[in-house]
Amino acid sequence: MSVAQSMETKLTEALKPVRLVIEDDSARHAGHAGHPGAGHKGGESHFNLDIVSAAFAGQSRVARQRIVYQILADELAGPVHALSLKTATPEEAGL
Q: What is the domain-level CATH number for residue 43?
């Protein structure tokens, strides 16, 4: 299973998002740690996540990030070098 697939599975199970977009941004980081050319097999080291979930209701931006970091702790301890997050409730996203 790819890193992106693993993240998708974990986030879907934990947050039941109404929107989840996972963008592998590794190619834009040539020469940085985690890039395929820097010794990390297959890339999948830099990601942009857009998550819309009712689970974020009443949570601050920092609390939302902590929730996501906790869910993806294994990926962040291993192959994922950088993670950019956009988090919102369905109401905030206009859904």
A: 3.30.300.90
Distance CA 47, CA 44 (A): 7
Provide the number of structural domains found in the chain: 1
Structure tokens at 57: 């209701």
- Within a domain: residue 93? no
Tokens 């050319």, residue located: 37
Calpha distance 76→26 (Å, rounded): 14
Range of the domain at 82: 3-88
Residue 23 — φ and ψ, nearest 5°? Answer: -115, 120
pLDDT, tens digit, 9 for 90 and up, residues 13-48: 999 999 999 999 886 655 555 444 444 455 678 899
Phi, psi of 51 (to 5 degrees): -125, 125
In a domain, 95, yes or no: no
What's this model's pTM, rounded to 2 decimal places?
A: 0.83
